[in-house]
Amino acid sequence: MTRSTTISRRSLLKSGAAATTVAMVPFWAGAAQASCSTLRAGITGYNVINTLDPGQMTLIPEAYMVWGIFNCLLKFDEEMNIVPDLAESYESVSPTVLRFKLREGVKFHDGEEMTSEDVKFTFDRLRDEAFGSPHRSKFSAITEIRTPDDYTVEIETEEPFAPMLSYLTNTRTGSQIVPKHILENGSNEEFASNPVGTGPFKLVSHEPGASLELAAHGDYFEEGLPKVQTVEVPLIAEESAGVTALLGGSIDVTSTAPFADVPELEEDDRVQVLKQAGTSSRFVSLNNSVAPFDDVHFRRALSYAFDRQAMVNVVLFGEGRAANGIIPSSISWAATQETPELVTLNQEKALAELEKSKYGAGTEATVLTWGSSWWKRFAEVFVLQVNQVLGVNFTVEVSDSGTVYQRMQTGDVQASIWGWLGLVDPDEYAYEIYHTDGARNFEHYSNPEVDKLLEAARRETDLEARGALYREAEALAIEDCPVLPCFESNVHNLLAPDVDGFVQLPYSAFGAQLAAVGNC
Amino acid sequence: MPSSLKYFLTRLSGSLVTMLVGTIVVFLVMKAAPGDPALIVLGDYATDETVAAFNRKHGLDAPLMAQYLDWLGGLVRFDFGQSLSVSAGENIGDLLLYRLPNTIFVGVYAILIAVTLSLVLGTLAALNRGTTVDTSATSLAVLGVSMPDFWFGYMLILGLSIGLGWFPSYGFTPPSDSLAGAFYSGFLPALAIAAPMAAVFTRTLRTALIENLDREHVMVAKAMGHSGRFRFLHHVFRNSLIPYITVVGLQIRYLLGGVVIIERIFGINGVGSLMVEAAFARDFFVVQACAVVFLGIVLAVNYVVDLICAMLDPRRVR
User: Fold this and answer.
1) Cα(A443)–Cα(A434) distance, rounded to whole angstroms?
2) Is B256 within 8 Å of B104 (Cβ atoms)?
3) Over the stretch B96-137, which tens digit does the pLDDT of each residue have?
4) pLDDT tens digits, residue range B190-201?
């Protein structure tokens, strides 16, 4: 790893001073080509990057960078349709076989050509137990990968597996194509800090916890991209520090914005605010196997007992929308369209359900949450409302996210505030949370009918029919209230006034979005 | 053995024992904390087997005593081990090497500012007791003490960076890149940390000076015809320095606390921000290394303060 201390705050500051000058350049000067060579794109709210190996990445900031360094066979376009990326085209040869025609002449950062061998290697590596990829289960449905020639790949699954196409996009699923010629004999650990991909940017240096520097990949296969030559990526742990850095001209782009600041920033002409409903789901997870949440009537009473829009207003300062279910509305073909009665505030029904429940007013329970900011407020607003409406006696326990997650996994929890962000397939929400064997079913929920529908949805390759199955499954699950869907939060990017070309996606594809930035 | 040497050796061995006890406490606290670095690194789909393999690989499955001794053995050789979950696989020694100079620079810078401010304000206040100068200096000190450093930090950014554009709003030039750049970009963070310290120092110095001004030997010196300047420097100021320097030394602990927050606000890649991140990620080894470094700094500073006080007042040694 080239450990460089030169990515430095110095260049950052210098360009900070330069930004003032750039601002005075007339608008027509930089219209045709990039008017700046260095883009300063801050990752805000996070600063831990343990690996840049797509097969091992788990954290959001890791994905932010991997998306810019690598490509996948497919990607999402601005309307969240799946379109080819490294693949030129793809087709379904049979219900269990997908065939991909690869682009020719795609180069890795070291100049080697990417071929079907690399694709096969990538998926064999993900499926290899010894490699221990966190994404392995997503690709365990694959039975064989065939490479009839250098530019053709066939992926066969045991039975029809509809989520596969989403998993092959440039998202958090780890299917970014890695170079066989480097990894065949090289070490995975070395690759984690010296990633080589086909993406628009290559890694120049990485000072852990502090900053990264990327440079344009000269042989990138998309004509005219990336538009900037260098990207400096400071890792800014405090979101609010990201705002001041942008306002003060020290950076050009942020990856997030603090909810509370957004309304004010939208009025501020020193900054452009991009926002839209994010691919996220925030909910109260109830442990269905312990009291008092082992009683469906009690769970329903809770679901009726709080106002989700009030939560959006208080917790997110309006930066989100009340949820209809746990499948985010941005996955519009599968999300529940009409708000079900059970996810709206209804005091009478809440009390009626409480009547039927074996637990009454005065029932005690602890709701676990984490952090100091809106996650904590989220728990407080929930507890306050249900305590008021039902007369129960819930309390909030605050911890940190790692602990909450571990306690959910081990079942050492009654209820907790949780959520998922940036997952792109409905299966990742519905199947993994509602299905008896779901990887994220920390609620210990089990309903054979729901399971059956979710399994059918995995096999259904027609998008519309598949979406209908998810809606049906979710409608049933909502009757059981294993989790209490609350809201979806917006994704935000803050841009300096003269930045253009940055297109925001609902799953916040940070690194991939930087290639098209033409002015900064 | 001369009594002074004995004094310093006793103090030194006391520091070393404190250090050892500190390592045990830090180690046990980290072990007792809930949360698991394996789950952070391995993510959503961690299985029991992958977690066990992770723990085996990093020696986290050994008995506690063995883990502690292993870690201590490394420490003695300045081998802090490798990061688990804030920068997986990275040598902690390298992480510290990059960050420690930044933290020390900003810390020392803050102390310099605080000492300079307090020497001026404290002296002015003491020599003009009861006048407007005294009231103003004392009021400033109360203001300084009452302002939380993180709030003051944001106010400085708001006013001097975003408002006036005099200073960068984010980021710090390491002193190894450019010393001038470090002084420039480190000014606001150092000032934010320095303000509450300067307030405490000012009050201490003012009280000590006033107390000494009224002492009999100063009166005697005046009777002997020594000039006011001589009396102040040799009889008043020198004696006042002992409580002053002791307080400066004690404040180092608070300084390190302040650094943790200020580093995050101003984007300084220092040991404080590393430690916070490591604590959240349950990166035991990194937290332990940072804590030991902080402990070492506090003990070293205390030791130096003792030395200085002993020089100013040799009676202490006897």
Assistant:
1) 8
2) no
3) 998 999 999 999 999 999 999 999 999 998 888 888 988 998
4) 999 999 899 999
**Which of these three, A122, A152, A183, is where a domain ends?**
A183
With an 8 Å Cβ cutoff, is A23 touching chain B?
A: no
Give the residue from chain B lying closest to A240, CA to CA: B265
CB within 8 Å: A244 and B90: no
List of chain A residues whose C-beta atoms are within 8 Å of the C-beta of residue B172: 9
Q: Over 70: is that where the pLDDT of B43 sits?
A: no
Reference A482, options A303, A355, A310, A324; nearest CA is: A303
Q: Does B183 touch chain A (CB under 8 A)?
A: no
User: Which CATH number does B93-317 carry?
Assistant: 1.10.3720.10
Distances (CA, A) of A325 to A322, A477, B164: 9, 9, 48
Closest by Cβ to A406, choosing from B36, B43, B168: B36
| Inter-chain touch B34–A403, beta carbons under 8 Å | yes
Q: A475 with A401, same domain?
A: yes
Residue of A nearest to B157 (CA): A244
Nearest Cα of chain B lies from the Cα of A29 at a distance, in angstroms, of 25
Mean pLDDT for chain B? 86
Residues of chain B with CATH 1.10.3720.10: 93-317
Contact assessment for residue A273 and residue A265, using Cβ atoms and an 8 Å cutoff: yes
- Cβ-count burial of B39 within 10 angstroms (0-12 exposed, 13-18 middle, 19+ buried)? buried
Q: Where are the alpha helices (DSSP H) in A305-447?
A: 308-315, 347-356, 374-390, 401-410, 426-434
CA gap B197, A10 in Å, rounded: 28
